[in-house]
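Exercise 7. Given the encoded structure of a 435-residue chain, write a plausible sequence.
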């Protein structure tokens, strides 16, 4: 219905131009207004342009103001402290816990209402939430935002959660915010990727060879949710077959170990050096080690021991929890990855197939062939070798990955090759001819 209560009519043009409404208030504000209308319940609805304006004022603008304030506060924090903003911080502050709880309540409510197709109740809950966020949480914590990393991290988490929640309803605005806010989630996922890469380098395991499983352990459930949201990217980037997330270190036999630095401790401890050293290596509890890691110090036999005086590492003992596999760990201060490096014939063969793909792509590049340009390669490995088995098993996969027709066997006599080279892969020879 038009604002005058009459049926909308093309001939009378008794309604505002939709293009102008979208241009003035945005498609997302219009969508939210319509979702909140009786039309969703198949009832008569009088369209009023001021209603769209109210949605913009009560939902979109407070949301954008919170985002803008967060970005400005992060920039100010980095300039004043000369530190890079780190989103991976947990806060024990009551105000931070309160706003996170309020955010989770809104998420749960919206999910329930959407599941029951009660779209019209979403806008009301969002209006109340953004009023709480901007007029209560942000206003009461302005001083903390200037120097407290925990407050900034909490606000960043809240904004990321709301963007994900609202993406189906306000896609354009959420995309705009996500392009800037995704660094919060990306930093987390990049830390996981970095840990996996460092572990591979340490073990001399090239990225071409798949890893059976990687478990990401972190006490922050939101961190784990962020990791899961980009699971496929992590699996692809790190060549991992299975990614598992958990908050439970004990489940995977992961424990902290301490190694005292006697060069530093010796002069200070003097006669207590042996007693304190033995306690650190053999008697200290996981709770004490966690306290040392999180708070930076712990008291042992009357002495304050700091993280600068002790090397701390995570170790994995699967036998303690009856896990099957060959597990190893890597970690930073907050996240532990447990990688299953158990040898598997299929995984090893996939790794060899990737090696062959790499060699073919090198040949194509050396001959300056573009991606869409067809070519044929002859791949020849001695009968009975691992490379011969892989060529026959993964022939189609190699062909698809390289955009090249793969023929298993020697280059026929009289066939001209653009380039013909022999490679050594895992101490086995393979001849590849590009024709």
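Solution.
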């Amino acid at each position: 219905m038009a604002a005058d209560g009459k049926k909308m009519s093309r001939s009378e043009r008794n309604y505002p131009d939709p293009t102008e409404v979208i241009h003035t208030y945005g498609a997302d504000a219009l969508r939210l207004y319509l979702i909140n209308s009786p039309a969703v319940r198949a009832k008569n609805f009088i369209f009023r342009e001021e209603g769209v304006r109210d949605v913009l004022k009560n939902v979109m603008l407070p949301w954008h103001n919170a985002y803008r304030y967060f970005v400005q506060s992060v920039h100010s924090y980095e300039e004043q402290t000369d530190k890079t903003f780190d989103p991976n911080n947990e806060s024990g502050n009551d105000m931070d816990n309160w706003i996170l709880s309020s955010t989770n309540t809104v998420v749960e409510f919206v999910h329930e209402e959407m599941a029951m197709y009660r779209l019209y109740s979403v806008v009301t809950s969002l209006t109340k939430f953004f009023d709480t966020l901007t007029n209560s949480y942000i206003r009461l914590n302005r001083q903390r935002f200037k120097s407290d990393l925990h407050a900034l991290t909490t606000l960043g988490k809240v904004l990321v959660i709301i963007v994900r929640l609202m993406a189906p309803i306000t896609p354009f605005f959420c995309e705009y915010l996500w392009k800037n806010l995704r660094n919060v989630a990306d930093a987390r996922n990049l830390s996981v990727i970095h840990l996996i890469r460092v572990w591979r380098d340490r073990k001399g395991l090239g990225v071409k060879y798949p890893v059976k499983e990687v478990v990401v352990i972190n006490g922050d459930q939101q961190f784990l949710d962020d990791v899961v949201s980009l699971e496929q990217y992590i699996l692809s980037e790190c060549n991992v077959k299975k990614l598992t997330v958990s908050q439970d270190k004990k489940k995977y036999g992961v424990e902290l170990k301490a190694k005292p630095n006697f060069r530093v401790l010796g002069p200070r401890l003097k006669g207590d050096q042996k007693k304190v050293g033995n306690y650190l290596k053999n008697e200290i509890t996981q709770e004490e080690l966690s306290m040392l890691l999180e708070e930076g110090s712990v008291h042992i036999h009357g002495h304050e021991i700091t993280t600068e005086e002790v090397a701390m590492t995570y170790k994995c003992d699967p036998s303690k929890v009856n896990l099957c596999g060959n597990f190893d760990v890597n970690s930073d201060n907050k996240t532990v990855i447990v990688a299953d490096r158990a040898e598997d014939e299929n995984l090893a063969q996939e790794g060899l197939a990737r090696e062959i793909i790499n060699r073919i792509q090198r040949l194509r590049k050396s001959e300056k062939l573009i991606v869409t340009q067809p070519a044929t390669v002859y791949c020849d490995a001695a009968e009975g070798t691992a490379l011969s088995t892989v060529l026959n098993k993964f022939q189609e996969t190699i062909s698809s990955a390289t955009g090249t027709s793969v023929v298993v066997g020697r280059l026929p006599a009289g066939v001209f090759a653009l380039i013909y080279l022999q490679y050594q892969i895992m101490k086995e020879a393979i001849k590849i001819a590009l024709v």
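Remark. Residues 214 and 339 are 4 Å apart (CA to CA). Students should compare their own answers with the one above.
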